[in-house]
Amino acid sequence: MIIRSIATEFLTQLREYPIVTVIGPRQAGKTTLVRSVLPEYEYVSLETPETRQFALDDPKAFLKRYVGNVIFDEVQRVPHLLSYLQGIVDQSGRQGQFVLTGSHQLVLRAAITQSLAGRTGILHLLPLSIAELTAAGIRFDDFAEYIHHGFLPRIYDQQQRPYTAYANYYQTYVERDVRQLIHLKDANLFEKFIKLLAGRVGQIINYQSLASDVGVDSKTVKQWLSILEASFIVFALPPYFENFGKRVIKSPKYYFTDTGLLSYLLDIEKPSQVARDPLMGSLFENLVVLEALKTRYNQGLSANLYFFRDYQGNEIDLLFKSGSQLTGVEIKAAATWNSSFKKGLQRFADTNAALTRRYVVYSGERMAFSDGVEALPYTNVAEIFN
Questions:
Q1: What is the residue-wise DSSP string for 322-368?
Q2: Which segments constitute the AAA domain (predicted)?
């Protein structure tokens, strides 16, 4: 089993809160994490129909069955349980009494806000990171291999073929969850939408253009995007426009939380096709931005990640804000260094805001320059955000 970096923060929060909630995509390893770290806890899956029905019908009698420490898996299936847990933890005064997992953040966040505010720590667990794979002795020679294989633990634990695994993942989880959430009548229309979204990965979203290509209105596109975000299929990278007035772009970019699913949606069946794909640069960018997000979440921290672009086309691929300090990151799929990679960083620092640190992430060797810019291989992205 691959050790998860978030385990340290998970144990810390168990000492600080009566309840710890771990949320993230399906099959990201939430259940494996909490059960392996807490083998002494009783485990209850609310995906089991009989268990879920009991919890729905008589929550008080259901909870009386569990007197010790308990893991409730996929608790978004019975969100009203959280109001009953509130009374239990307030009475017991014990830390780390309950662990909750969930794969739909809108439902869970609403229930937490209503019932468990101040009583639960919240952690986001995304699929495996490059650093976690490396620590487990799993390395690929090329970024195309990482993109194609994706990062679902099951692919590595069970040595599954990536394209087939993600085809099954899409049909088993993505389509099923989306159908439940939006009462989808036409699966083909939604599949067209998500594949068109994959084709626009890393681009500034144009809701009207996407809606027109799908054949629905922009309101529907926004609703479907919110469902994909809530289900951890995609995430939005917001623009950074602090104090920059009206000169900058204020629409987000969207990326996928697993590059393997993205590859499947783009019909990439083997790693060699990544380099020939017209979206190669966007695929590499998705990989790097995702590694940054995983690093932040694995520390139990907010993302604080942004991009910048103004209407003159000047841009920074990734900005990271910590306190008043701003770090700029340019992302290039190239393996050979070119001094032009640094230009955007210098232009931003000269015209918008000072950058405390400046990086170029690419697929070449580590280098440091006299002007303070550092070039890092994509496998070392986590260093920037630790």
A1: ETTEEEEEEE---SS--GGGGHHHHHHHHHT---SEEEEEESS--EE
A2: 18-133
**Structural domain boundaries enclosing 114:** 7-124
Asked whether the whole model's pTM tops 0.90, one would answer yes
Q: Measure the CA dihedral 195/151/125/377, to 10°.
A: -100
* Encoded tokens for 382: 């986590």
Give a yes or no: residue 23 inside a domain.
yes
Alpha-carbon span 70 to 41, nearest angstrom = 5
Residue 304, in any domain of the structure: no
Flag whether 93 is in a domain: yes
Average pLDDT, the chain: 93
Q: How many domains does the chain have?
A: 1
Q: Cα(385)–Cα(371) distance, rounded to whole angstroms? A: 21
Q: Give yes or no for a contact between 97 and 89, defined as CB atoms under 8 angstroms apart.
A: yes
**CB-based contacts of 159: which residues, under 8 Å, 6+ apart?**
none
Longest dimension (CA), the chain: 67
319 falls within a domain: no
Pairwise CA distance, residues 367 & 357, whole Å: 14
User: pLDDT of 166-186, one tens digit each?
Assistant: 999 999 888 887 777 777 777
User: Rounded to whole angstroms, how far apart are CA atoms 201 and 191?
Assistant: 15
User: Kind of pairing, strands 325-331 and 367-368?
Assistant: unpaired
Query: What is the DSSP pairing of strand 234-237 with strand 253-256?
Result: antiparallel
Residue 88 belongs to domain with CATH number:
3.40.50.300
